[in-house]
Amino acid sequence: MAVFKLDNVEDLYEIGNVLGSGHFGQVREVRERSTSVLWAGKFLKLKKGAGSRLGLERKSVEKEVEILQGLQHQNIMSIRDVFESRAEVVLIIELIKGGELFDFIAEKENLTETEAIEFMTQILEGVSYMHKKNVGHFDLKPENIMLSDKLAPNPDIKIIDFGMAHRFILGEEYKSLGGTPQYIAPEIINFEPLGTAADMWSIGVITYILLSGLSPFQGDTDEETLRNIVSMSYEFEPHHFSQTSNMAKDFILKLLVKDQSKRMTADECLIHPWIKPLNRTQIAKRNRSSINMKSFKKFNARRKWKMSFNMVSACNRFCRMQLQCKARGPEQPELRDCESDQEDTGTKPASLLRRRLSSNS
């Protein structure tokens, strides 16, 4: 069971500056009064009632909290405290200052496969631990892979955002249609029973992007992207993979497998020759190979631009809806539509995309 405190968060933590904001609340820097340790406070608005569309369902927050409280690993964001009031829930979580891994890599002039593997190993260790705890993340993507502190000599990877995570129960069948189109596994699109193997597909996509600067299934539209995933339509383009070792390609091939039962597990990835070479020849080949930095920098710039565009677009839509709500007045039935926070177009639910895909087939 998730543990919530009814204390006033300000009695135990000094509330600091805003670090970020989203549809359902904001993240602020907080200082623990008893230790002076800095944390991040995630202030989340709760729905006021069953009919309200503004805010989060308490049960969804409770699910995320319960999962995080059961995960204690250096490569997974930690949670310190949870406070609950009538209007909001406050999660006191680890303050992660290093930004996104992909942004950190994009600042470099070059990166060998060996250096990239140091980051991949940490990601896999975090995922392996999570899966041994019967937890699937279901939203692994560059935005959710952070660095503890990019100024540190050997920064720790931190996997964040467990809002879509699920803890499996023995004998339970779990299905979901959520996720970010270019990273979701085919079994999600096909609405098949899911397992932790769906995360491993996402690891394969992330590795492909990291090495080449290309997204393997990305189409001009979300519908095209989903079709490419279901049809396994991808290749190692020579121009972008000319500097990539065959071991790295083999690693990706064993993750981007349609049959989830044949996909490598996180533990199997950790002993794959690309991650853990068996001899000096393999080490030498890996050291001579590097990621395509020119292409990777372009991918990351497009990714950041799209995130910024989507955020501005969502804010503009929300502001317009607020004005419409005020103009209509509280008695208008359409007012209920104005309560809802707008969907971030960068992470459209796969259920909507799948319906569009079906209607266009």
TrEMBL record:
Pfam families: Pkinase. Keywords: ATP-binding, Kinase, Nucleotide-binding, Serine/threonine-protein kinase, Transferase. Residues 13-275 form the Protein kinase domain. ATP binds at residue 42. GO terms for molecular function: ATP binding; protein serine/threonine kinase activity. Residues 329-339 have a biased composition (Basic and acidic residues). It comes from the Eukaryota. InterPro entries: Kinase-like_dom_sf, Prot_kinase_dom, Protein_kinase_ATP_BS, Ser/Thr_kinase_AS. Gene3D superfamilies: Phosphorylase Kinase, domain 1, Transferase(Phosphotransferase) domain 1. One of its GO terms (cellular component) is cytoplasm. Belongs to the protein kinase superfamily. This is Protein kinase domain-containing protein. It comes from Phoxinus phoxinus. The lineage of its organism: Eukaryota, Metazoa, Chordata, Craniata, Vertebrata.
